[in-house]
Amino acid sequence: MNRKGQILIFFVILIPLFAFIAALVIDMGYSYYQSNKLHHLNNMVLKYGLNHINDVNVKSEMISLLYKNDSKIDSYEIIIEGNKITLKIDKTVESVFGKMIKMDFYYISSKYIGYINGNKIIIEKG
How far apart (Å, rounded) are the C-alpha atoms in residues 125 and 111? Predict the structure, then answer.
């Protein structure tokens, strides 16, 4: 039997599949990285707000700190109630390779609630 060319056909079929899987892994990794970055930003701004909760302009300083560290934030929500602050940040991350399958953007969100208990700052994922 003459089997010349079977490996070539197998190779031609699998290379696009492997390329697609690699692109998907890169895209998911990038969106996870951006999500992790957003969570760290949320924690940092929330800690700042809790450390300066008695200041008159703490909310505007938190907003300034948000945009100073990430200018591509879509929306935010800051709720200050007594010694408790709730911070929710939403962001749209552009897809790198997802455009091939009509996934142009990833929507990520981060919400944390922080409060002061005694002299201790407590931050919880909300």
Answer: 6
* Domain boundaries, given as residue ranges, for the chain: 6-125
Q: What is the pTM of this model?
A: 0.83
Distance (Å, whole) CA 96 – CA 110: 21
User: For residue 1, what pLDDT is reported?
Assistant: 57
Helix (H) or strand (E) holding 107: strand 105-117
- Say how many Å lie between the first and final Cα of the chain, rounded: 66
Distance CA 58, CA 54 (A): 8
Structure tokens at 98: 């997802």
| Alpha-carbon span 54 to 45, nearest angstrom | 15
Q: Which parts of the chain sit beneath pLDDT 50?
A: none
